[in-house]
Amino acid sequence: EAGVAQSPRYKIIEKRQSVAFWCNPISGHATLYWYQQILGQGPKLLIQFQNNGVVDDSQLPKDRFSAERLKGVDSTLKIQPAKLEDSAVYLCASSFRWEGVAFFGQGTRLTVV
Amino acid sequence: GQQLNQSPQSMFIQEGEDVSMNCTSSSIFNTWLWYKQDPGEGPVLLIALYKAGELTSNGRLTAQFGITRKDSFLNISASIPSDVGIYFCAGITGTASKLTFGTGTRLQVTL
Q1: Which one-letter DSSP state was computed for residue B27?
Q2: Is A98 a residue whose pLDDT tops 60?
Q3: Using CA atoms, how far apart are residues A78 and A21, in angstroms rounded to an integer?
């Protein structure tokens, strides 16, 4: 069974530029998460989808971050414009609706210069 | 919001030693998970705990779900170099399966 796929693996951008990350969850997983992990810290939930609906986006900086999950499968996370403090690893995870155990992708390491 | 505190923050041990780390919260969780994260990779699930008091093993790893549902511990027996990494606890609460991560324990193993 294929795992959670994310791309790109690495991205370097200048501040005020925009960037987008892509995630393909495990087949059949209804729940999809985006996490931000700053160096030396645990992952912090940005947004959680159940199918194509948002369950929790309370910690998403909505003035610059947006996410969508069209058709309840793939998802994209966008940052526009990026700030230096957005430098982090962005992790995508998915889980079965009833089980709740999340499986993670390898992440995208974003560096804002 | 909910916070999970892990201790110790970091530990240096010799190969062959046993390791113990724990995770505490002020909130009740329905499920406890333990993940390991290697540099440059996403967290990998080690053990999942679903019931208060549950004790579960996975090879050299053993984890327990605290009776109060506010804590959990992870033990690693006879550590080996590939055990190096950061160990995170995570708790699930609510019908929406909200997953909250702990602060992490960094494990270093010396030969």
Answers
A1: S
A2: no
A3: 6
Are B29 and B69 contacting, i.e. CB atoms less than 8 angstroms apart? yes
Residue B96 has its nearest CB partner, among A50, A101, A104, at A50
Q: CA distances (Å), B44 to each of A66, A72, A92, A102, in order?
A: 26, 24, 12, 9
Instruction: Tell me which residue of B28, B37, B83 sits closest to B58, measured CA to CA.
Output: B83
CB contact under 8 Å between B96 and A48, yes or no, is yes
Low-confidence ranges of chain B (pLDDT < 50): none
Chain A interface mutation, best of B47, B99, B100, highest count of A Cβ atoms under 10 Å? B99
Kind of pairing, strands B31-37 and B55-58? unpaired
Tokens representing A43 are 């992952």
Is B104 within 8 Å of A41 when comparing Cβ atoms? yes
Phi/psi region, residue B53 (left: phi>0; alpha: psi -120 to 50; beta: rest), is left
Which residue of B47, B97, B100 to mutate against A (max A Cβ within 10 Å)? B97
Question: Are B97 and A100 an interchain contact pair (Cβ–Cβ within 8 Å)?
Answer: yes
Chain A residues with beta carbon closer than 8 angstroms to that of B101: 35, 42-44
What digits encode the pLDDT tens for the residues A51-91? 889 988 999 999 999 999 988 899 999 999 999 999 999 99
Asked if A95's CB is within 8 angstroms of B97's CB, the reply is: yes
Q: How far is A53 from A112, CA to CA, in rounded Å?
A: 30
Start-to-end CA span in chain B (Å)? 40
